[in-house]
Please model this.
Amino acid sequence: MEKPQENFENFLLQSNLDSVKKFFDKKQENKMDLTNTPWITLAVGTELQRLLKDRVISPGMKVLEVGCSIGVESCFLAKHGMNVTGIDFIPKTIEVAKKYAKLVGADVNFICCDFLKLEEKGLKGTFDFIFDQGCFHHVPIADRNKYAEKVASLLKREGIFFLRSFSNRMIPSPTNDGPIRLSSDDIYNNFYLYFITEHLYLFNNLPLPNPTSYKPQIFWSYLGRKR
Ligand SMILES: C[S@@+](CC[C@H](N)C(=O)[O-])C[C@H]1O[C@@H](n2cnc3c(N)ncnc32)[C@H](O)[C@@H]1O
Model:
């Protein structure tokens, strides 16, 4: 009999963009309850806040959030004077993001689309800062380079990319789907061709309100500057 870990490794190798889409579509079909979805909180990521506090990012920047969900972080940065676009491929999250932006008085351009299929015309080399908090760890291995290439292509020269993702210090997914637990090599090797690594470290993310299989919350924080 296959061990759970082997199952998970098979899942990683076999996974493709369609299976990722199915994972999220299933949540939609099952009437995804946005008030009871583990990653949906109204808390702005600590490491993102640190970038603002340390002035790595600043008002006036043109920003893209990949996998923005209900847009909490996109709105936060817009309220701090940035020109923000948020992308997510779940229509319901974009619908809520637009309502949330209205509620908090943030001006954000929300787009419902698959990042890997985003039409780059007119957007190439225009962003100062691109960030992703929880999307890249869903990207199938075969598409990881395409993802890095796309981020680099959308950024200006010396533009910044920030990534927050699950790490392999977390327990493997018991359901063999969902976020991939990434190693430092998975991140460093995938991005070094396009980015100079400014930092890559593990940190304890904010605890989730409802305990799930995602514990412990040991995440990667990666910051790269486009070469
Ligand atoms: C774990 S959630 C994280 C959401 C949010 N960034 C946060 O920190 O709470 C990942 C989000 O990425 C979106 N996503 C995953 N793959 C995507 C893709 N290829 N293109 C666009 N959105 C994607 C999902 O729909 C989901 O809303």
